[in-house]
Every structure is written in structure tokens, then in C-alpha cells.
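Recall the central idea of this unit: under ordinary conditions, the amino acid sequence of a chain determines the structure it adopts. In this exercise we apply that idea directly, starting from the sequence alone.
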Amino acid sequence: MTDPGVRLVLVRHGESRWNVEDRYQGQEDSGLTETGATQAEVVAEVLASRFGAAGLVLSSDLPRARDTAEPYLRRIGGTVREDARLREINVGTWTGRTRAEVAAAHPDDIAAFEGGVDIARGGGETYREVRKRVWAALDEAAAETNGTVEAAAEATGTVVVFTHGGPIRVATAEALGVPAPGERAFAPVLNCSYTVIHHGGPDGPHVLVAYNAPTTAGSRSTRVE
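Accordingly, the structure predicted from this sequence is:
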């Protein structure tokens, strides 16, 4: 049977308190702001309208992603499966510090990173490491959903994934075959934007259908993960 492919809809979480304060968040969590909670309601309506009830809903296990998923789950009457592999990049000792504070304390690391060196910021992860874990999670989800689609003789299955800016950029780069750290060339991801990748199965090809599509006015974008 011809592989029908799977539509991956990747959604960045709503605005968080540390987004507003320009702090590195990594794998800690500061909670959604009031604006972020509103953004989650808006993106839920957009997702339900454009993509309907996804066959599978995944989320990072960090609260800001799970909380963003809740309004969509209410609308479709669905459940979510958490996957720690969809977490934001680990930024180690930079976590909770502002961009200005880190720039003052670690100018050489910042210069290397901005120059395209894939360093483990704050002793955390590199983007190559993040790409490996994120894409493994998406590959597995696509394979699972594709099996369900084939059994139902449908054309395309949909997986909605609530995650973070870093994972969305590395997943986009992986889908397009852009070697690390090529994800740095992609625009910072807006809060509650969505990115759509058509996953073509284990042998591809994968197709980028939409990147960073905004759903709310005034959404925040940042390279401070």
C-alpha cells in the first residue's frame, strides 16, 4: 500500500512569565501569563477548525505546554500523551537568568553560539542532541498514526504536538534535511503559532507545509528558550 503520510502539527506553548522577562527557561517552567492562557484558547479554536480532532495529541511534559494543550482537548473531547522527549532544550546553569545576565557573564559562549557553534549552553544540551530526541518522538508518532490511517483506509492522519520553540525549529530542519546547526536560520517561533510537516514515512520525503503560522495578534517570539 502506498504510504499515505501523516500530518504533524507542531504548536508552540503560550506566552510564559519568563518569556516576558527575557529569561532562559529551558526545562524549568514559569507558568503561562494571562495573555498566554488567552492565546491557548485562540489556537485551540484555530486547530479545531482547520484540522479537526487529531488522531493523536502529544505534549511535552512541561506545564506550559500541557496547559496550552488543555483548551484544544476540551474542544475535541480528547486526551493527551506526554513525552519528555518533546521538552525544550536544557540550558543548564543559564536557566532562570536573563539574556543580559548571561551575555555579561559568558561573552565567549554567547559569541560562539551566535557564530554558529552548537555549544551546550550552561552545560546543558546541544541542538544536535535535541534534534535526535525530538525527531525520534515524531517518527514514532507518525508510524503509530500511519498504521491507524492505513487500517481505516484514510488518506492522511493528523498528530497535534504541543511543544516549544527549540524543538519546532530542529524538527523543521530535520524534515528539510538541513544539517545542524542549520535550525539557527529559521525565524524564532511565535507563541501559539503552528508549523505543519507532512511526514512521508521512514523513507520520506517530508514536506514543510507551513512554518510559524501565527494564530494570535501580538504573539511573542524569542531565541531565549
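The longest strand covers residues 6-12.
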